[in-house]
Design a protein that fits this description.
mainly alpha; 0% strand; 4 helices
């Protein structure tokens, strides 16, 4: 049977730079680059008339998720903790749009 591991553990273990400065740089620059690639796919669809390449977009979103996960790990957080913190913040701003993440909903990634 395959070993069950968290995505964040896999990313942290596989990221090739070992120095914190380099990992922060890789993650931050990667987020910008991968987000730009996602934007370009959507731009080509909306403004150049290309079909939306959802397969390519999913690949780039995966790369973006990898970079976000690495950055979260470098600041000692999981994506799940960050998602929960974000829902709490959004609920404070828009209480009629978001459930109470502490009592009404479980946030999973």
């Amino acid at each position: 049977m395959a070993e069950e591991r968290k995505y964040g553990e896999l990313v942290a273990a596989a990221a090739f730079p070992t120095e914190r400065r380099e990992r922060l740089s890789l993650a931050a620059l990667g987020i910008g680059g991968e987000a730009g690639e996602c934007i370009d796919i959507i731009k080509k669809h909306l403004h150049h008339g290309n079909p939306l390449d959802t397969g390519h977009l999913r690949e780039e979103l995966g790369d973006l998720l990898w970079c976000l996960t690495l950055l979260a790990d470098e600041v000692g957080a999981s994506l799940q903790a960050i998602a929960l913190q974000n829902i709490i913040k959004l609920r404070e701003r828009y209480p009629d749009r978001y459930p109470d993440p502490i009592n009404d909903v479980v946030v999973r990634l």
